[in-house]
Structures are given as structure tokens and as C-alpha cells.
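re: ur question from yesterday

yeah so i grabbed the chain u mentioned. its 169 aa long if i counted rite. heres the sequnce exactly as i have it in my notes:
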Amino acid sequence: MEEKKNSNQGNENSQGNAIKTDYLVIRDNIMEWGNTMIQLSNVCSISTLTFVQKNPFPMYSLILVAVGLLGMQFSTATGIVILGLGIVWIYLWWNKNNNPDKTETLNITMNSGTVFGFLFKDEVFKMRVLRVLEGIIADGGKRKIGDINIDINNCDIKGDLSFMNGREW
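ran it thru and got these C-alpha cells back, copy pasting raw so excuse formatting
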């Protein structure tokens, strides 16, 4: 959920209401991506979600199966081909639903009510980023934090993480 009030504020790539960006950069109390930045002291809450994409059953595949069964009475080869297509379609649907696509999001809600949702490929990395943001917010700007570069594509965090004080991230 990119933002409720304004449209796509220059984000690198926006899918629906979610922000898909390769990098996040944190400098002290500012987090930036693309040509957008937010002040982390204005964050009200941070939450995470996992969406599982399930596909509806392909009803037309049943028509292919029925036509294939009926067609076998007139032409066995044609009937078997059509029946096979229907069965393959059902199998592909079943296989995709047994290995569903997951979308990981990290949602940052600002004091103004604006919500920024960032897409992640990996749940473990998403939780690491959550812990880093938690550490920055808990620090409350008490110490100067150097640049932290979060490479979402390659699941890597680089920079000064001394503010974490041994917290697991």
C-alpha cells in the first residue's frame, strides 16, 4: 500500500499500492528510495504481511475434459488430445496452487495516516529490515547514525549498525 492520499510519488516501480524498489537508504532519521523520503521519527507503526496468491479453479478445463470424452466417440485421437489438454490444464492449476507465489510486505504507517508498503522477496530479510528500523526508532535520534544501505534485491544490509547494541537483526 504505497500511499492512501497521494498518487505514486516518484517511486521506482509501483505495483498497485505497493512499492517495489531495489534500494532503501537510511541517513540518520531519514529513509529514502527513488525520489521519496520519509522522516523515521514520524512513523506511527511498522507491520509485516505475507500474501499468498491462490488461483481460482479453471472451469473451462472441465469443458475440455467433457468435450474430449464426448469427442472420443467420433474420433478417438482428437478426443484423447482434447481430454489430455483439459487434464494438463487442471494439473498445472493444481501444481501452481500447491506452490503458491508469496509476496512479503513491510508496511510503514506515518503519523499522518499515510501507509508505505514495500515488497520483499524473502521473509527472513524482511524481518531483518524490520529489526533495523526498530533499532533506529528505538534509538530516537540519540546518536548520529551513518548511512545504512538496504539492498532489497540481493537481501543485503550495509552500513553502521552500531546503534543495534548487540540486538539480533
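noticed a couple things. Residues 59-98 form one domain. also The chain has a mean pLDDT of 80.
anyway ttyl
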